[in-house]
Here is the input.
Amino acid sequence: MAENCEMDEDCFEDAYDRIPVASKMDFQTSIEECSMALNLVLNNKFSEALDLLRPWSKDSMYHALGYSSILVMQAAMTFEHKDIQTAMATIKEALNTCQRFRKRNSVVESLSSLVSKQSCDSLKAEEMHAEICYAECLLQKATLTFVQDENMISFIKGGIKIRTSYQIYKDCQHVLNMSQGVDGETDTFTQFEGGVKLGIGSFNLMLSLLPARILRLLEFIGFSGNREFGLAQLREGAASHSLRAILSVLTLLFYHTYVCLILGTGEGNLVEAEALLEPYLDRFPRGSIILFYSARIAVLRGHFEKAQVKFVECINAQQQWKQIHHLCYWELMWCHSFQQQWREAYRYADLLCKESRWSKAIYVYQKAAILSMMSEEEVRKTGENVVDLFRQVEGLKQRLAGKSIPTEKFAVRKSRRYSAAKPVKLIIPALEMMYVWNGFTIVGKRADATESLLITIEKAEEELGADPNPSEFHPDDQCLVQMLKGLCLKHLGRLLQAELCFTQVLSSEKRIRYDHYLIPFTLYELGLLYKQQGDIAKATRSIEDAKLNYKDYSMESRLHFRIHAALNSLKGSPVNSP
Here is the structure.
């Protein structure tokens, strides 16, 4: 892909306009066309990219891989059942196409033995690439299943041959190591090497995130990912002149800007993310995928105003893929929520309810939660009925791969307080959802926004204290308020006060009737607080307590991902150093 680095985007468009459908397809041309299609995608020309790849998608492995990659990306963004089905069907076709080019009579397991018995020359370039493309399609299939269900059990249900894919990558890495210095200069070899680094890197990174119990579920006995090795492979892939350099970049960006936040402790490497993005911002200044990540990095830095401008720019950059608009609406909803600009946040939540199919239950709950933060007068102006919205949530719940989505289950459970004839109002529900998506880690970058949240939380605390007729939910509400208050205080550096809030929640454990998730999550947050104070032993004890002694609570799987990341980071911490 980097051969085209100097060409500006107009060249790609012109080049595309001049491309007739080739009457025959050789291997080198297929790589070039795939590279061209990637550039079209980065220039927001999604349907043109598909048109370029479609004619040869059943005869050329790179066209097949490129075509399925774009459809998988679309499915991952829309979460629409029909898109997921289409992408799955295309992956199956792509696997068949790649299979035709693989070494005859060779099962995957025999590839490495082939390499050791004969020289690498006996594996033709096409056969080497067929292995990589085949493994990549399997990886896409896995990703798509992962998108459907953060519990990962669907990995097994989908019959994903993830092990096969991993084995192929390991064998290809063996081929690569043996070929080092032999074919080092050829473009074909560079492309092969880029594929290996992307695959080995992604696998190591993905496996390193998984808590042991989930690895056991996946029957990955003895499979463990090395996070640092995975990151290093992806970095080398991102710096290479291969077609897949941008894919390594996008994988790293997704890891630093989303995975670290939602499934980790929130410590993504933003300096690296910016450095990776910079050359692509120069080449594709209006590319919506690039603009989106640029805006997301601004959010994570706490530059909410700058991020808002960038997300709007991203929305205006293209109209073909509305799903990218929906991702921007989601982010804009949070940007405004972090600043407690509830009317603007409501506007984006409402757009999501009307336009996006990803999760109606979460959108309607989110909209109702945001309206709950507004005055009665402001709610009246919107024409919405908050109680009715909460009552709709349960009927909107969906099942993917036979399982409920954990965050939807949480929203359904919380909204049941409104199903009684006399509804019991939720307390600061939008801030609770902010916590669920690890938003306090982001707001914590801005002292002014954190102080404002603290004021809102303390108001809620006063209201609860002054309630003349406390409901059965009262102890749960008090604990939620204390936990969120503790988080704000922690981010403001008032660590002893934060610790008091967390211990107050833990001492109320027996009084909690419904929100049992508050105890393990508070233990986890207390552990991170001890880590900040430099007490690694106490931090480990508190987080291990959350891991071992609690089960069957809301979003358990998500907390186990975070616990796994936290315990790993504690292993690397020097004792008693802040």
The longest strand covers residues 399-400. The chain has a mean pLDDT of 87. Residues 10 and 43 are 10 Å apart (CA to CA). The longest helix spans residues 125-148.
